[in-house]
Amino acid sequence: MKDFYDILGVSKGSNDNDIKRAYRKIAMKYHPDKNPDNKDAEKKFKEAAEAYSILSDASKRQQYDQFGHSAFNGMGGGQAGFNSMNMDDIFNQFGDIFGGKNPFESFFSGGRSSSKPRSGGDVKVKIEVSYAEIVNGGEKKIKLKRLKLADGATFSNCTVCNGVGQVTRVTNSFLGQMRSTSVCPQCKGYGKTIEKIPSGADKNGMIKKEETIKIKIPVGVENGNYMTLDSQGHEDINSNAGDLYVFFEEEEHEHFSRYGNDVLLQVKIGYSQVVFGDKIDIPTINGHASLKIPSGLQPGQILRIKGKGFPKLGKTSRGDQLVKIQVDVPKSLSKDEKRIIKEYYEIEKDKDIKFEKFED
Ligand SMILES: [Zn+2]
Hints:
It contains eight helices and 15 strands. The chain is α+β, with helices and mostly antiparallel strands. Strand 10 (about 255-260) and strand 11 (about 260-270) form a beta hairpin. Zinc ion binds near residues 184 and 187.
């Protein structure tokens, strides 16, 4: 799959206007009307439309920047937004890029009604992921309530618009006949009205159903990242579903914290261990590692273990683990410890005390 930015010939930092301008140019050039029976032009035309549909949508663009194509590709059973794009969708976009006027009017005069409501609405859910899940990936089941058409609901054709979903008004003016089309006020564009409402359903014949769906956790995912599962939201009476937005939230960990792709851990060791240096075993987010403490290390210093941090989203590399070393000052001592430390105190008490500037 080609990079969306490359397809439109724009850079990653491009603003909405640049993207719109680039797409408009390509759409004009490869439009099927201008290139009849040209498969290559059609392919380029579709590619550009797909790229534009993602990059022109702030949330989809952000997702694409984070996850790449995988953001829209078969995650958790959702359908890819751009894979399912047909010519109708593409032409629907034109209203937006050509300022409400479609220059290719003739091409699609065949019965499209873009004023029909698209879906029953989006659903947003939040899922908590542990550090282990962020490292290893995996699947999580979530329960959600979606609006669906209730069993037994029946409809009849809307009598106001005859099932078309739109009403057309013709007025005569000195310029000639003017036709204006708008969404049918009776059926809100659905072309049908409810006849029988099953018990438990709302006035539109819709019912809330609890469902369990599986979400694939992307390795390396971070607080605030989200994915969109197409057509997994609320359905409308024509069974057109909105999208499902899944937001990821990190679970707090007992010891570790996260800074970008790095893992932070504080370790407390004994005075003698920092004086002489040592080798200690420490936990990592998915196992443990051996850490060499150099002799003379000062409390508060940070040691880095390369490649033991979080996996980077969509990449094979990983961040690092940063270990801050502190000295553990015991509050109670054994008999032996007391004797030895006391002995050492006798030497240390006569040493000069160092004065330094206060450290932040
Ligand atoms: Zn109607």
